[in-house]
Design a protein that fits this description.
Elements: H1 2-25, E1 34-43, H2 45-49, E2 67-77, H3 82-92, E3 97-102, E4 107-113, E5 126-131, E6 150-156
Parallel strand pairs: 1-6
Antiparallel strand pairs: 1-2, 3-4, 5-6
Length: about 160
């Protein structure tokens, strides 16, 4: 009988741990109510158009249509930033993304999406975003989203180029 009680206790404890982890990873909880939807896409058209600049080892990372994450309607939660949505949606779609934080500046830099990294192609290349066809003057981790926003991420060969 003691083995049965210990087994049940361990099972209950494991279920509690799993529940806590799932809730903490899922922003759609009572703490973070859904406030609507945004549209998001991630593209690498500049690379598709300039494959001659891309190392042949990277060719397999670049979709021929330029689409890494298709334009999709996604749920947002209270307080979501552009970066929060990018991170959550790419994780759910199983698309690799890495980032760095700048301590003291509350700033997040996208290092790579789909293993395509800034500076890997050209000195001024990298990932940039815009919301509602405008280039925000804040980082993606600082731009708080509203219902109906349209987020576009793209890999650029030159940050000085107009989008």
């Amino acid at each position: 009988m003691k083995k049965y009680k210990i087994g049940v206790s361990v099972a209950v404890a494991l279920l509690v741990v799993v529940f806590v982890v799932v809730v903490s990873l899922n922003r759609g909880s009572a703490t973070y109510p859904s406030i609507g939807y945004v549209t998001m896409s991630v593209r690498v058209d500049a690379l598709v158009e300039n494959m001659h600049l891309v190392d042949t080892d990277m060719h397999e990372l670049i979709p021929s249509d330029g689409i890494i994450f298709p334009e999709s309607r996604v749920t947002i939660y209270e307080g979501d930033s552009v970066f929060d949505v990018l991170q959550r949606e790419l994780r759910d779609a199983r698309v690799h993304m890495s980032f760095s934080t700048l301590p003291g500046f509350d700033l997040v830099l996208v290092d790579a999406i789909n293993n395509i990294a800034p500076l890997a192609i050209a000195p001024m290349s990298g990932w940039q975003y815009r919301v509602n066809a405008e280039n925000p003057l804040v980082g993606a981790s600082q731009y708080i989203l509203s219902d109906g926003d349209v987020i576009e991420w793209r890999f650029t060969l030159d940050f000085d180029d107009e989008w």
